[in-house]
Design brief:
By secondary structure, the chain is mainly α. The chain contains 16 helices and no strands.
Length: 265
């Protein structure tokens, strides 16, 4: 008897965050045991519950087997069943777009205002889309936004908004474009009060996730909890970008990101 094939599950985009996508955290994670940094002590510093350092709705990425929401199937050519057991550290290496970002940028500390502004703007633009889409459009974003120089973007007016809305190389979303311009102006204010965006972040680090969310809501626009969490993980202010067994973890460790500094307090 002929049986019709079961239709494949609809493809899912890479949503936030870039981490492991299993259904529930595992209590006996080998990677956590091998980690030279005590994640429970880090949790205490940044205000996460010690008994479940990275809960399902956190921005944990590769340190544990949390249920996170950045999924991979279409972006990396894997079926959804297999991807449910893999992390960004498993999937990104070797991928033409995710690989370089995972290996050279994700979780590494950033100090330059333009680089921090770019990361925040890209995280905002990723909302509702796949991270692969953002990576593919990154060069166009840099060209369109003057290399994410906060001073240049802060001067944008009506003509620039019209230009950006007509630029097919970027995400043509009026709210996201307006957010980039407004956030550039707010970064200039942070320069006046703290010297730079990075020094402003340093002045408020460490703090727990909810405090970070509230602070970003008060300081910037279009910065929901998911955007803030992934921005902080990707720039090294929160742990979770790479699991301990990931070859890139050692390279991140050598850069001594802020979350590792907090773990030694």
């Amino acid at each position: 008897m002929y049986l019709a094939p079961v239709p494949a599950a609809p493809p899912r985009q890479i949503q936030r965050n870039r981490g492991i996508i299993t259904s529930r955290p595992t209590k006996n994670s080998n990677d956590q045991k091998k980690n030279s940094y005590d994640l429970s002590s880090v949790a205490g510093v940044i205000g996460l519950p010690r008994e479940k350092t990275f809960p399902a709705d956190s921005t944990a990425s590769c340190h544990d087997d949390s249920n996170t929401s950045r999924n991979f199937p279409n972006d990396v050519g894997l079926d959804s069943g297999r991807s449910m057991r893999l992390s960004y550290c498993d999937i990104a290496p070797g991928h033409p777009w995710h690989g370089p970002y995972h290996d050279r940028e994700y979780g590494f500390p950033i100090r330059r205002d333009a680089a921090l502004f770019e990361r925040l703007a890209l995280e905002i633009n990723q909302a509702g889309l796949s991270w692969l889409t953002i990576l593919k459009k990154r060069r166009a974003f840099r060209l369109a936004f003057d290399g994410f120089d906060p001073e240049a973007v802060a001067r944008y007016g009506k003509r620039d908004r019209t230009r950006l809305l007509a630029d097919a190389g970027i995400i043509r979303n009026r709210l996201k474009i307006d957010a980039a311009i407004e956030n550039a102006r707010r970064i200039l204010s942070l320069r006046e009060s703290h010297g730079s965006f990075a020094r402003w972040l340093d002045a408020h680090h460490p703090r727990d996730r909810e405090e970070w969310r509230r602070l970003f809501r008060e300081t910037f626009v279009f910065t929901g909890g998911e955007i803030v969490g992934e921005f902080l993980i990707s720039t090294g202010y929160l742990p979770g970008a790479h699991r301990r067994s990931c070859p890139i973890f050692g390279r991140v460790e050598s850069r001594d990101p802020p979350w590792m500094q907090a773990a030694r307090i």
